[in-house]
Structure prediction request, 255 residues.
Amino acid sequence: MNDATLLVLQERHGPVLLLTLNRPERHHALNVALSAELEAAVGAAEADEGVRAIVLTGGGERAFCAGADMLEASGAERPAAEPAPPRSNAGGAIGAIAATPIPVIAAINGYCYGGGARLAIACDILLASETATFRLPGSEYGLVVAAATLPRLVGAARAKELIFTARRFDAAQALAYGLVQAVYPREELLPAALEMAQSIAGHSAAAVRAAKRVIDAATLVDEAQRLEAEVNRTLRGSPEQTERFRDATRRVTGR
Prediction:
């Protein structure tokens, strides 16, 4: 399998694993196949004692991840493959990133929308390029996106504003809100992320992983994550949600 057919490119930098989403024709939107490959890559990294940090980014210069694949999710296109069995109760690539004990840095190099924003928020440290843009459109589509996890980064009031309005915001605003930890010129983003990952990888892996576990226990509320999943099970497929998602799909894709 060559790089053109891989949906997740993997590149080792000593103890750091660089994972690059590779579906540029859809701005790396998460379909079944891409999600399964990313989940598998994280699982393989966990089995490799040499991997001490992960950097996650999107290929090219336009997108980190544009969210869920709307054509697949709306039924306009059928998935090319059946989803792999989930590794955790959260399931999927986002759950795998959130659950891995390996520290993960998101290098956000462009569009970071919807499920792509959820994927970034699941990472431990978020860095962005000056051209990165963000949006949480769940309320427009009739779903709840990142309500359980965004507040620990930006606070409850800001999370409500961003989720309720579903507005787009830029990298400078994301930095001011506390969503990202630093903003770089586009060409400096990935080198900065890799340099930070190498610094982390040089410390005690046991201590770093333990610190991650303790910080997550202090700031993530399991009940909130269960509640978000539960309300989405209720909302998804309702007549209003179905119509809203179809309208959004037509606006975005023309189909």
Summary: Residues 84-90 have pLDDT under 50 and may be disordered.
